[in-house]
Amino acid sequence: MLAIIDYGVGNLFSLSSALDYLGVLHTVTDQPDEIDQADRIILPGVGAFGDAMTHLSERDLIRVLVNQVVRGKPLLGICLGMQMLFERSFEFGEHVGLCFLTGSVVPLRESIPDHFKVPHIGWNRLKFIRQDDPFLQFTQEGDYVYYVHSYYVRDCADSMTAGSDYGTFIPGVVHKDNLFGTQFHPEKSGTVGLRILQAFCSFPI
Amino acid sequence: MISKRIIPCLDICDGCVVKGINFSNLQIIDDPVSLAHFYNENGADELVFYDITASFEQRTLFYEVLIRTAQEIFIPLTVGGNIRTLEDFDHVLKFGADKVSINTGAIYNPDFIESAARKYGSQCVVLSMDVKRVDGHFRVFQKGGREDTGLDALDWAAYGAEHGAGELVVNSIDTDGVKNGFDLELLSKVCNRVDIPVIASGGAGNMEHFAQLFQKIPGVDAGLAASIFHRREVDIPLLKVFLRDRGIEMRIDNGTAASACIR
């Protein structure tokens, strides 16, 4: 059983449908005992970083997630969920993240030329940084994935395994030990995205 | 770099896909769920579902179609039509939409754009506008293109972008259904005014029209069309190869044939 963390933000319909399509049993929950029993976890997210951390904290889910990650359980963060795996974000002030991975979340606008629109919305190609990442075992270099975001993770070289060019290099995929993240939306990235979810779901526990 | 997007739009009435010429003479075309599935497998970069029904009963039928579609297509899905309140937003998002398109609802209540963006994020809010030339000026029309609001289209586009719309759909009533090409004059002016993604709609009749659109107005992010795709007059995979051969970046999914192996 996989647990999708429901902390009151974002639309989990597509993600849940994608897992149904792949035949992956899952539950959408904010209950610590269900998360504890799950064999892997997805942390989704849209909206603002600070609000999302507050929602997690109010449900006492930060402590729960830390416990699960320390135990070695695979955790996938999607979009804002990936950004929250890092140390801090500068979205509307400075906020502390879950600190599982090294790096900071900063505005795209300050890092890319003016003629690049923000948000970065659309299909962009993946460039691999690490060719042997098992998270990318069903993905090919040059595959297109669907991004929607205005902030990105900087200084995350030790976990970044793929990314895309958009005025600067955007970390699109991160993976270190049992921690996984995608800045794009795999549940909205067609067949390519379904394969990335499948790779996460087949990572050995 | 991001690719340009090709977006089929499905106008849905009584649970069926319909498409008229110049906003009238509706014709029934296909079952929306199977048509959406066809596009998902054949290179569409996202889909737009537009609810053109009026009654409450028909609205329920639209939601049923939406939920059945969203369960099995995994590309972005924008839903519009009759969106006037945050409650309407809640409904369509719950039934599987990724983005919500607002049109008349924003004209009646311009604060709606900002309140929706605050609650759901700009990435979720698409401002759609129907534009027609009146005495040499571009004006915003409402009620399916029948009524002049008096709003200047370029000012309205700028207002929407400043107040949190994440994308702009610009539909030219003058070129809609005529199949003589997109309204390049209008689109060029809009792209000069706003820095959010612009989706061009109205007038595509063949592949060359899409090439003209993306080559002449680099600021346009996507081309939207309905009947030419529904009637298979333009085939999306062939269109994308045609555009890529002309130097326009296109997402050409080499994995479609292999999608069966995933299940």
UniProtKB/TrEMBL annotation, chain A:
Pfam families assigned to the protein according to its UniProt record, in alphabetical order: GATase
Catalyses which reaction(s): 5-[(5-phospho-1-deoxy-D-ribulos-1-ylimino)methylamino]-1-(5-phospho-beta-D-ribosyl)imidazole-4-carboxamide + L-glutamine = D-erythro-1-(imidazol-4-yl)glycerol 3-phosphate + 5-amino-1-(5-phospho-beta-D-ribosyl)imidazole-4-carboxamide + L-glutamate + H(+); L-glutamine + H2O = L-glutamate + NH4(+)
UniProt keyword annotation of Lyase present: yes
Associated pathway: Amino-acid biosynthesis; L-histidine biosynthesis; L-histidine from 5-phospho-alpha-D-ribose 1-diphosphate: step 5/9
Keywords in alphabetical order: Amino-acid biosynthesis, Cytoplasm, Glutamine amidotransferase, Histidine biosynthesis, Hydrolase, Lyase, Transferase
GO MF, one example: lyase activity
Domain of life: Bacteria
Enzyme nomenclature, EC number: 4.3.2.10, 3.5.1.2
GO cellular component, one term: cytoplasm
Residue numbers annotated as active site: 79, 185, 187
Any GO BP annotation: L-histidine biosynthetic process
Residues in Glutamine amidotransferase domain copies: 4-198
Subcellular location: Cytoplasm
Record-linked SUPFAM superfamilies: Class I glutamine amidotransferase-like
Entry function: IGPS catalyzes the conversion of PRFAR and glutamine to IGP, AICAR and glutamate. The HisH subunit catalyzes the hydrolysis of glutamine to glutamate and ammonia as part of the synthesis of IGP and AICAR. The resulting ammonia molecule is channeled to the active site of HisF.
Complexes and interactors: Heterodimer of HisH and HisF.
Name of the protein this chain belongs to: Imidazole glycerol phosphate synthase subunit HisH
Record organism: Flexilinea flocculi
Gene behind the chain: hisH
Automatic annotation (TrEMBL), chain B:
Pathway given in the UniProt record: Amino-acid biosynthesis; L-histidine biosynthesis; L-histidine from 5-phospho-alpha-D-ribose 1-diphosphate: step 5/9
Compartments, record wording: Cytoplasm
Name of the protein in question: Imidazole glycerol phosphate synthase subunit HisF
Catalytic activity: 5-[(5-phospho-1-deoxy-D-ribulos-1-ylimino)methylamino]-1-(5-phospho-beta-D-ribosyl)imidazole-4-carboxamide + L-glutamine = D-erythro-1-(imidazol-4-yl)glycerol 3-phosphate + 5-amino-1-(5-phospho-beta-D-ribosyl)imidazole-4-carboxamide + L-glutamate + H(+)
Pfam family, one: His_biosynth
Enzyme kind, highest EC tier: lyase
A GO biological-process term: L-histidine biosynthetic process
